[in-house]
Amino acid sequence: MSQASGAADTKPRVSPINDPRVRSLVFQAMLVLVIGFAVFTAINNARENLQRQKIASGFGFWDNIAGFAISQTLIPYSEAVSSYGQAFWVGLLNTLLVAAIGIVLATLLGFVMGVARLSKNILVSGVARWYVEIVRNLPLLLQLLFWYNAVLKALPAVRDSMGLPFGSYLNQRGLFMPQPIAQPGFNFVIAAFFAGLLGAGLYARWARIRQERTGQQSPVLWVRLALVVGLPVLVFLATGAPLQFDFPSAGRFNISGGMVVQPEFLALLFGLVIYTGAFITEVVRAGILAVSHGQTEASYALGLRPNLTTRLIIIPQALRVIIPPLTSQYLNLTKNSSLAVFVGYPDLANVFTGTVLNQTGQAIEVVGVTMLVYLSISLGTSTLMNWYNSRKALVER
Amino acid sequence: MTATDMSAHAPARDGQRFVRSVAIEPSPPPSSIVGPIAWMREHLFTGPVNIILTLLIVALGLYVLPGLIRFMFIDAVWSGADREACIITPERPVVGACWAFVRDRAAYFTYGAYPMPQRWRVDVFFTLLAVGVVWLLWLRAPRRDIGAIYAFVVLPIVSYLLLVGAPALGLPYVETTLWGGILVTIVCSAVGIVVSLPLGILLALGRRSTMPAAKLISVIFIEFVRGVPLITVLFMASVMLPLFVPYYLQPDKLLRALIGIALFASAYMAEVVRAGLQAMPKGQYEGAMALGLPYVQMMRLIILPQALKVTIPNIVNTYIGLFKDTTLVVIVGIFDFLKAIEAARIDPRWAAPTVSATGYAYAAVFYFTCCYLMSRYARTVEARLAKADKR
Lengths: 397, 391
Known about the structure:
The structure holds two protein chains of two kinds.
Chain A: H1 2-9, H2 20-53, H3 84-117, H4 122-136, H5 140-152, E1 162-164, E2 168-171, E3 174-177, E4 179-182, H6 186-214, H7 220-238, E5 243-246, E6 249-250, E7 255-256, E8 259-261, H8 263-290, H9 293-301, H10 306-336, H11 340-343, H12 348-360, H13 363-392
Antiparallel strand pairs in A: 1-2, 2-3, 3-8, 4-5, 6-7
Chain B: H1 3-9, H2 35-43, H3 48-74, H4 99-111, H5 119-137, H6 144-164, H7 181-207, H8 212-227, H9 230-244, H10 253-279, H11 282-290, H12 295-325, H13 337-345, H14 355-389
Helix pairs in contact in B: 4-7, 4-13, 5-6, 7-8, 7-10, 7-12, 7-13, 8-10, 9-10, 10-12, 11-12, 12-14, 13-14
């Protein structure tokens, strides 16, 4: 009674020490002060140390001549005239190249092994299982060094290169492959490819609308395949096959012509693909197992055939579970590509935090830029994947 | 004989049906359902694709395994003092794994350049660590609360005194530049493990806190560290950290790497713990609040014990990742186990064709054993927890 009347006219009196709002404000203020003080001290110390060691600061070095060679360059770069800025772009492109190829191959390997892991054939599932167990329990660095030093460096010397199909050669210096050279008229083929892509998209849309309206299905897969693959092939043949190959020719001491894939690149790619593939295997297995068997049975009860069941019922639901962890595996692969340093592949971390840092000594700028690049790749990819995931996610109440 | 039995065998009379009262033995299932042949048909030769796959794998196994066994054991060289033992000679054209090399350099792989007369200290450290690990991980060990204090408070202090040295106790200083091999690998992972759990819990609580400042700081730290490769974090710790502290307080090279590893592992641990916190039903928080528990006690007594319990498998998985990642400290000039193998491998005293492969095989066995045991442990705990949740 007295409580009720007391609550009606006055607020409960709480000492400010016990008021959660005051406490939280005080705590946050303390936290911000401590962190702010630490940052302030660090900046002050850095300024003092830089002056003491006579290290320049700022990005003045960006346009200076780099003066070191890079073994693999996707854009024009020369030791004598190119700047540190150009070296940065070369390194970044090399990182993106190995990450992109690695992601595609690791996904293929992971999906094949993930399905194999669930096979009824115990030999098939056993191979997949031990692949995962062994690869996941060994450090990536050990695997990279193994591929580079024990496998690729142990290949035959240039003199007795191994001949491969399509006029390729494999030896200690890398994989020598025929290089396609586009002749005039090849642009039409590329244009046909993009036109086919556009047509395939439009056709799929038309087919979906038609099915929703009339219930009639169209052969989507075949028509799309014909548009994307068939059209460019037709144009290619019609324009008189405007593509020539520059085959490598084996000499006594060297191989001339063609294009060469360096052993450093191959070792890094092998290592990344096999390592990440093992993680993707587990992701795929978990995703497929997450779709309950009742879904399959219900789909059979509706009269769907097994391959339609897989395509329309199992895979879409499994993908929903697979995509988020798959994204983080892609990001791991990209970040792990920085282990290129250990096999000497000129990626961003190797070129920038390696050579450029040694030459300029500007640790804060160089390491900062490198971190920022990886950070933007990571955050960009996860934003994109979150968007895709939110589209694919189950809409719940 | 009972009456029913009698009637079963008696001839059927008028108005009475023949009813068998004893079940006949079931006939054995056809051999296409049970037995080794049926098993093989089900598991190895289900269809044309499976038959081809089975034959391919068997052929591959027959091709690879004998060669591997020959290399590892039959053609292997088990003893010898230097490269002479493992080089190819006309009398011995095929040389397998050069285990003599591993035996010769085993002490170097374990201790690095740690001074010979002081190596017993490292052995004591390994023993103390093993005691702590078993005490913590063996779920039925007595007094695991004391075990936790031992592992997280006593052990770090004693190990520091042991390994670095304490002249007052008669243990001369040993420079960390002399440390190497398995010792450094273990030290790096142990520091990462011991630091990352408490720091990770703090960061996870900060990320889920209602205080905007704490939340913002935690989110920035976690996302930043998780977004960059470990190599760049190590570079930061190695070349930027010395700039951020006063010049008279320069941290030791190993310490810098340890700071880098600990920060990196904390960010990953924070996300693992956060997942556990999110898995807690809201009723647990509300129940604790209804009991009038303040935040600290609510977390310490109600939420964290339950949340950490369900995350144990994920925590161990993070530790496996951390253990593998310690190989990267080479990049800032720390001499870990893998680096010791690399250095010994190219040493001309042991220059022989199979030395590299043997060194990598030894490293692989070491890392695989450690990681595999950890993952088995995680799976055992997972199974145990699943049993507790089953109704």
